[in-house]
Design goal:
Blueprint: E1 8-9, E2 12-13, H1 19-39, H2 45-52, H3 56-62, H4 66-91, H5 94-111, H6 115-119, H7 128-150, H8 160-171, H9 182-194
Antiparallel strand pairs: 1-2
Helix pairs in contact: 1-2, 1-4, 4-5, 4-7, 5-7, 5-8, 7-8, 8-9
Amino acid sequence: MISKTNGTVGGLPRHSVRADAQRNIDTLLRAALSVFESSGIDAPVREMAQKAGVGIGTIYRHFPQRSDLVVAALCSEVDACADAGFELAATLGAGDALVGWIERYVDFVTRRRGLAAALNSGDAAFRALPTYFLDRLRPVVQSLLDAATDSGDIRKGIRPEEVLCAVAALCAPLECPDPPEARRLVAVFLDGLRYGASNRILVRG
């Protein structure tokens, strides 16, 4: 059973700050994510402040180091991606829930420019990101895979790490002439998950 995260933003308890302060933090995180989408995670703090409509001092009051804001923003998006698995599992059939979540994950990977670099940078400031990423997403994917396997929509023996890494790799920029669209590559990967399944009816994807 997938458990939904409640009362956290980027893994930080909401009750640790006042409601108005939490609203400010949420605004900053949304602004940071929007800037990451257009300019990458190396975008200057000033750009994030302008997007949020606050002064730079406000950002540094909540996030003393620039890396603190990057980590909190990315963790909040990981939380949202994980919680999407809960919502999809509650409203769709097993096969559709898995495909729907992978589509959500593709959005996450392709829109958050620099995520992979941050996860694999070895920078001490981002050291917690890979563990948080896997701890939050692995159980969600495992639950979705288990349900889709039990329903016969995908074949057995697929590990959550394989899904997370394979989809992320397929979404990475390709250095070749006229590279195929990431979603088309992911669709081929999904067909591979279905190959040999007991239920050969294709789910959407």
